[in-house]
Design a protein that fits this description.
It contains 14 helices and 10 strands. It is α/β, with parallel strands linked by helices. A hairpin with a 5-residue loop joins strand 9 and strand 10. Helix 5 runs parallel beside helix 7, helix 6 crosses helix 9 and helix 9 runs parallel beside helix 10. Bound molecules: ligand V47.
Length: about 350
């Protein structure tokens, strides 16, 4: 059986076979990924109505790819007060936004309670608003800074109202590439361990992969395989989110940029390899809206959400500073031949648009 026949027959492929899929013609690969996508989701494309809040950009870590944290290239430091954050939350709830996605830099000046108290305040005032907060990189930072074990901090997150964890901070799991792009940050093993422990608490999370910088194809496949292994054990990942590297205002100095062709191949391969992860997210923020729409035919079944405001990727050049208009978004999904389905944060269907 060749690889395509194995995929069609629903058999799992190994890392060598996954790597070999990059040699396939783009459309042949797209057809295989689309087959898997249709088996799981038909023609539905999911999104949610969400708001990102990035409360502080002061960071003790130095990731070469990051343009968000305050640095020589971005000297404008900020830390939002709880009142600032709550006034955003009050406003979004009035407009029926269902999820708040809170991710910060690793700020050693705020204290642990600053993080926990804001989750508690949001959850107490709005028990039905889904709080997606703290990447595994932040969890690791907070544990080191304030002498907590992962178990202790994850329990505090649950107690204070965090519903799910976002997938940030995964970057690329390969240790050599990771050392080069984000030395000193949470290790791959630690990142996976934190998500494993979170899943063991009956909670869900996402997982990202930052690609299109200095990593090679085999590093991406290795990344996907490590995700697949953990997912076999816990089943706790809702979505895989390949994040396309944005090149502005950072220190990575990438000279050769990734093509749309390679992005689509990577999305398609992720749909095929991650046979145990239900959702592949084409994150329009880093891929552009138009490529995200095309990616729906290459395995992706989720387009994230309307976002409203986003500071991490937009600092590096992504066109997401002001989110996307809901009516426009829905029309674009329809016009590209898919059914826009509004979902909640854990993929329950809320409304077919
Ligand atoms: O972890 C930082 C990435 C991530 C750049 O879980 C960059 O639903 C591209 O994780 N180019 C944060 N990417 C965003 C994130 C996320 C986004 C949307 C949904 C979810 C989810 C999670 O942004 C960081 C890092 O990997 N990032 N700098 C850059 N120059």
């Amino acid at each position: 059986m060749n690889i395509a026949e194995k995929v069609r027959a629903g058999e799992r492929i190994d890392s060598n076979e996954a790597l070999a899929l990059y040699e396939y013609d783009l459309f042949e690969l797209g057809e295989l990924a689309d087959l898997k996508r249709k088996q799981l989701h038909g023609n539905k494309s999911y999104f949610n109505i969400n708001r990102h809040i990035n409360p502080t950009n002061i960071c003790k870590d130095i990731c070469k790819f990051c343009a968000y944290s305050a640095s020589r290239k971005n000297p404008n430091q900020y830390t939002m007060s709880h009142d600032d954050i709550m006034s955003i939350v009050d406003d979004i709830v009035k407009r029926d936004i269902k999820e708040v996605h809170i991710v910060s830099a690793h700020n050693p000046q705020t204290g642990l309670q600053w993080y926990l108290d804001i989750f508690k305040k949001i959850k107490t005032r709005y028990p039905n608003l889904h709080v997606k907060a703290l990447t595994a990189a932040e969890v690791h930072f907070l544990c080191e800074e304030y002498g907590k074990s992962y178990d202790e901090l994850l329990d505090l997150m649950v107690e204070n109202g965090v519903d799910s964890m976002p997938g940030g901070g995964a970057e690329i799991f390969d240790e050599t590439v990771r050392e080069y792009i984000c030395k000193g940050k949470v290790s791959s093993g630690q990142w996976l361990d934190i998500h494993k422990k979170w899943h063991e608490r009956g909670k869900m999370s996402n997982v990202t992969m930052l690609f299109g910088h200095v990593e090679k194809r085999h590093n991406r496949i290795d990344h996907m395989m490590r995700i697949r292994d953990l997912q076999d054990a816990t089943g706790g990942f809702n979505a895989f989110i390949p994040l396309v590297y944005q090149s502005e205002n950072n220190y990575l100095n990438v000279k050769e940029f990734i093509t749309a062709h390679e992005i689509l191949k990577t999305m398609a391969i992720s749909r095929i390899v991650l046979d145990n992860v239900a959702n592949i997210k084409a994150y329009w923020v880093t891929s552009t809206v138009n490529l995200a729409l095309v990616a729906q035919e290459f395995g992706a079944n989720d387009l994230d959400g309307t976002i409203e405001k986003e500071s991490i990727n937009s600092a590096a050049g992504a066109a997401s500073a002001h989110g996307v208009n809901l009516d426009e978004f829905v029309t674009l999904i329809k016009n590209s031949g898919f059914i826009p389905v509004e979902r909640d944060s854990v993929y329950n269907e809320l409304k077919i648009w």
